[in-house]
Amino acid sequence: MTKNIYRILHKGLKKLHPYEAKGNEVRHLNTLTSFIFGIIKSSKVTLSEIASEIPNSGKEESLIMKLRRWVANENIEIETYFLPFIQCLLQSISNNTIVLVIDGSTVGRGCITLMVSVIYKKRTLPLMWVTRKGGKGAFPEEMHVEIIRAVHELIPTGCDIVVLGDGEFNGTNWLNTINEFGWHYVCRTAKNSIFYEQDERFKIEDTCPEKGNYVAINNLKFTDNQYGPITAVVWWDDKYKQPIYLVSNFEIYEEICYWYQKRFYIETMFSDYKSRGFNIT
Prior knowledge:
By secondary structure, this protein is of the alpha+beta class. The protein has helices spanning 2-16, 24-42, 47-53, 60-72, 78-81, 83-92, 141-152, 172-180, 253-260, 265-275; strands at residues 98-107, 111-120, 123-133, 161-165, 184-188, 194-197, 200-203, 214-222, 227-235, 244-248. The longest helix is centred in the first third of the chain and has 19 residues, at 24-42. It is elongated. The relative contact order is 0.10.
């Protein structure tokens, strides 16, 4: 059974490879197969756990070094070893609404990663990411726009897309970019965010309901740039200690809250990695 799974994986990766692999590319593809097989069998993402599950692999220490070299190899190109498989995943779920989540998280050695993931079976699978030195919140809005434009190039034509983000991702250029794609978004915003209803300027916290209730206001302009129209929601569910403030191009309150709850699946992914000691450096 173990060898059958390995062969199925290898056959599938070869089929999705953009052209017939030769020479070093064959070895790289074999290593990628080992990586995926080890993750599936161990349900972990540390190199030692992955290596321990790979069949007929020889000494574990040697295999760990092999996996580490693969990760660090500059010849492992995104276009050859990542994008074909990402596009296949997106195509396979394109008949349903595709839910994308953008988030930033601190990672090892004083770095932060900006990541766009797709929700799949109550987990998030990374599609595209960028890592650089800095603390949480170190990515400017221009980079938010840049990464979502890159993801847009991967999405099959005609898909129904919902993009979710926390309070870091409520810049008007970012929201407008998503809107221009014809996608929907639901993003968190700060309680002191500024809105305009016709000519009346107000802070969203001024509309806060009692716990267990909500307020939804359509056709607003957002920030002093008066971007819109936009829907604002103040959602104070009984399970929340504080109200959640949301902006969206959906109009219906129930729809906005339904989709936003799925954003929390990204926290599961990051906690999975951290609890399993994710470190491939």
